[in-house]
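Worked problem 6 (solution included).
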Amino acid sequence: MFHEERCDFCGDCLARCKYLEFDRESGSAAMRKLAAGEKSPWIYDCVTCMACNEYCPTNARPFDLIMKRMEEAGDFTDPKLRADMAARFQFEGEPRPVKPAERVMSICVMQGNMPWAIQGQLFETIPVLKGKHYFCNVLFSHMGDESILRERMQGMVDNLAKSGAKEIVFLHDDCYAAIMGIAPELGIKIPFKPIHLFEHLRDVLKEKKGSLKKLNMKVAYQRPCASRYTPEKDPVVNEIFDLIGVTRMKRRYEGEDALCCGVEVAGPGLKLFPRGKNYEPFRVKNVEDAKASGAEAMVYLCPMCFTVLNKKVREAGLKNFMISDLCRLALGEELPADRPQ
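Solution. The predicted structure is:
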């Protein structure tokens, strides 16, 4: 939800954008026109990375306004594709019962994307919630549609609560962002304690600290777009790296200045952004920055970032790891042979 009463139209949100050509003065004027409902063709060049929400010094949530205007225009993404995706992720009936537990993990629909990243000691004892009943719908923010996300949020929260768990770990950063960064804006109460994957990994590693193997590895971290909603949990990744003996190299493009991976395809035949936007220069810049930092590997939290960047990272001479991969190596486990490289 855009909070116009908080916005002083300073222009910082657009001036700091890595993808649009604005300075503070032109950014201020553009946001004033957008707030007034005037036609703003530049929204079609938005990559929906959500960074402007984090850049905003008054927490006015400018991306929420941009997304609202995208939906009003109706053609930011192909309407048929958007409708097909909405139907694909619509849940029906009641979620499957799970074994009662104080803490469970929601893996949403991620098992098909990254089965190799949710195996081993880190996950073997925690009951799992999976499937469309727990889908967060943040995907539709990238398609310029706030209504689907808004309309389905309460249902997602209710389905999660039906597990009876007091704590729910969220494997996917989008899901955690939905619960912690979006649901409160919609006035939705959360009847359980949300736990980020980082916190779960850290807790397990601390329990097994005496048996951890230090990896002595230098890495660059690829921060997902959804982390814009919950930057307060980001320091936990440094705790994980300290526990497993990994050095996080300083990069130009990290933290608030992180670059979006530029995902264009959500699956076979599912092209999200059929508008001709050229993301390749930004991907090149991102990977070159990681290599220049002295890193020997790129580390990911989001499976889509892994999918989009892994080939280019390998071509640059770096390795690819999900953060759970590194934790498993530190626990002395072997990574599965079918894991993408």
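Discussion: The two ends are 39 Å apart (CA to CA).
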